[in-house]
Structure of O-antigen translocase:
Amino acid sequence: MSLVRTGFYSGIATAARLLAGLVVIKLVAWFAGPEGVGRLGQFMSLMSLLAVLAGGGISAGVVKYVAEYRDDAQKLARLLSAALWYALCASCLMGVAALLMSGQLAQWLLGDARYVNLIRVLAIAQLGIALANYMLAVINGFMDVRRLAWIQVLGSALSVLMVLGLSRWLHLYGALLALVLGQLLLLAVGLPVWWRSAYFRRSMLRIRFDREMSRKLAAFSLMSLTSALLPPLINIAVRNHLAQQYGWEQVGYWQAVSKISDAYLLFLTTAINIYYLPKLAATHARDALGAELRNAYRYLMPAVIVLAAAVYLLRDWITRLLFSADFTGAYALYAPQLVGDVIKIASFMLSYLMLAKAMTRLFVVSECVFALSYLALVYVFTAWFGLIGAMYAFALNYLLYFAFNVVVARRYLGAS
């Protein structure tokens, strides 16, 4: 399937997911204002952490190896049996850990022990979330973008209905609970759709340990966990730092701009993940890899520049629409954030080369280094410039990350 068709289907799915997420943010902004949005960010960071840990962080590995082995029935069966075993073991471990630490997590992240039952529900949901991640990764590996989009659209539509119902009944607590249960809706919707696909086999639901395949998945687990866990952890540290320096209301402004950034970039990052990861994994000739990367820049960079410019021009209207008039303090933060967004997409397209080609050590080290450098830059720049310094830190850190990825890509592709 071409990038344009992939972008079309992934765009529809992303729009549905985005709408579901924005409904939650809007409701929280109504219920709790900037402070509530700041705390919502903490809970969503925890969800991101546990969602990745639930499946052992092997989704990218499943996508890569399904793309490679889809014409080799024996290897594919071994891979998927091992992947399901790996994911279920990891989800059980994380669920138990989250249950045991539910009180501490509620107090640390949300500042209120009354949310402990919400953390417990999230912990119990880990098994279902792991199965949903596994299912979506297999579909992505077969590059069945249309079926993947259909599952996400239907799941998101049901999530919106759940958010509206639970928030009307339980207010802020209900909105947060709907975020958790919405993850399980993907599994309920997706299994029947996946079952009807031409490539589905009952053996794909068989659980079996395989040492060789588990070792391969473990390398991807390390890379995926590093890239997925570090940003939420670093963002938690950034929020806590900003809260100590400027208060939770200011954190709400920072969170609002960050969420808008994440929202519109989701269209592009989803297309990169759905199309380029399996494409790069299945492409072995270095000339062909270079051509794929050039093709990505030709389509995606103009798109991100146009989107970033549109968000900047419409920032007042977007902020009022998605949040409320109480968020006027966020307007000044947009410019450096949007510049950083453009550089971020340029970096991501190159960084997927490391992921697709299993450059485990280099990928993990680079993720750790640049996560810590971002946190250090936030401390330095907020001391110099105030709250907007966090956005300057974001843009500069991604500029450094982009330079690093250019060097890696040139060396791998054999450029002089």
About this structure: The chain has one domain: 3-413.
